Here is the input.
Amino acid sequence: MLQPDDFLYKQLKTHFGFNTFKGQQEAVIRNILAGRDTFVLMPTGGGKSLCYQLPALIMDGTAIIVSPLIALMKNQVDAIRGFIIDNNIAHFLNSSLNKQQLTDVRESLLNGATKLLYVAPESLIKEENIQLLKQLKISFYAIDEAHCISEWGHDFRPEYRRLRTIINDIGPAPIVALTATATPKVQNDIQKNLGMLQAKLYKASFNRPNLYYEIKPKNNPEREIIKYIKNNPGKSGIIYCLNRKKVEQLADILQINDIKALPYHAGLDQAIRSKNQDMFLMEDIDVIVATIAFGMGIDKPDVRFVIHYDTPKSLEGYYQETGRAGRDGGEGHCIAFYSYKNIQKLEKLIQGKPLAEQEIGKQLLLETVTYAETGTCRRKVLLNYFGEQYPHDNCNNCDNCLHPKPMFQAQEDLITLLKTVTALLEKFKTDHIINIITGTLTSLIKSYHHHELREFGRGAAKPARFWQTIIRQALIHHFIEKEIENYGLIKITDIGLTYLRSPYPILLPEDHSYPADDNDNDPFTGTTKSTGSFDQELFTILKAQLHDLAHRLDIPPYAIFQDPTLEDICIQYPTTLDELKNCHGVGEGKAKKFGQEFITIIKKYVDDKEITRPQEILVRTLINKSSLKVHIIQSIDRKIMLDDLATSKGLDMMQLLDEIEAIVASGTKISISYYIQQTIDEDKIDNIYEYFYHQAQSDSLEDAIQALGNDCTEEEIRLVRLKFMADIGQ
Here is the structure.
């Protein structure tokens, strides 16, 4: 048995100051020193870098480290130079170097001083660099972030697919592939592409027991994030967004709420990116808001939280990004905000790509939805995705294990869905299927005579939102699938056909109140249920006040405040109109028109009960600078016809109505009566207005379509509802 005083341990102590290896590091290093191809699959924080750094320092020649990001290379070179006195021991070769720096690197390589050369794949394929490297003795090639090779990986880079050819051109040497995340399919793809199918595989467990996994509905995520950060002062965290614009917006919002945060994305100047990254590493700021360009190889052990503002594109990306939390074994809180609308946006981005890419993208998104909507242990689902079995049903460190989701018996609902898809000959999308099941008569349904189907209205007792859940769960369980070439068409699978022939009881998790888009399903009512416990006593008092006020004003109570708004008020305890405006569903117009009576009651209640209000009650927000909204308001002021306005902005009418509803809900005073009077019969206007004024229990669009749909189109209902809400709430 090898003793800690043997050569390898002495080298470890000499170069890095460690007495022992971590996990499988020793076995990996001995395999590399023996000159054999090596595949290293270790989660973030497992110590992959040492696996190639120590052999590179021991072996003759120069190790070529292929790395995907310039910032990552600099970070890794700085790290190795921190252990070794001679700065020439490690260099990087990429587009950031000037002519003199390139000359210095070349000289250091040719005189044998450089043991590790970090190079981007784009630089490796340049002919002048190939000719330079041909003059060197190569100890081995290390392909870092090797998942970039695979089209099934979460960060596919086409340049990585050429690496084997370039290596053959430069000269053969052992290959070491390293990644923190790879499913069995990705692993096989990497090995095939690099021509290393016989490589020795070292695979560490993907389980990070110190990480807490949680999925939250995307209801006012900015406020949730500010609340979390202020409740965890001084802790370092990373917030990931899918696009650069959101990165900068969110960083600005955090800053004006006195949180030390900076943005990071590929669109920023290189100097700014480096400065922001260094400030995070040096703890001059607490939070970095970033795209996925940030984080690879960032060796900060005490990141205490990783938040995904947007639904991740793949579970691989999600796992790697969450892995940057708690690398020291300490606390690591991983929160992802989930909205199915985000998934639909990502699905649309897949359209138009080659079929193979569509298939891959669709599968990756479905796996993300499965993880987000599961009612079982998240750790179990995550590890299973990477081909690892978690032996327990309850990890006691994820939201589903600590707060189990209720399940319901879905056999009959699933049969209803599958029969409807079959009756439609698999030629329609989700919305049409739901309209048939709920008995919602649309012009499209009339034109196809689908209201004559036996399935029409079969599920009318349950809302459309419920059937959206059933469809998503049916996709997750592979009873149905979305057709690729004609995006969005729902097809029944062989599993679904088998289920129809021989149905069996099936339990599905209840709807998690995940909204259909980022800011609730409906700008007026929303679909949000309070995510925290609210003050029931105050709620009862405010509810009575609401009915009294509604009676005095002779308007429906819901036109003032909905229950979700009252619940949020009973969490936030606003005592000023400015604070009230930050509650769910309260725009400036409603706050001014109806708020004072409620504020007076709340202030007295808070004083009498000596209630300590949440610190995050007043979340300062940025001024909405949307040029589209400004254009819409100005156009309506000039009485431009809405269909012409929609066409001029490349919108369909439903998209334009979404924008106008958001404007009205925010309290901005506008009037579209001129358009309504020219496009809708007066009797219809009166009928719809009367419904919302005297019959409706809420301003739910689904309920209105159910009640009025035989006589009115969805567009007509939305237009008149806009007029009603503007008249009442402004």
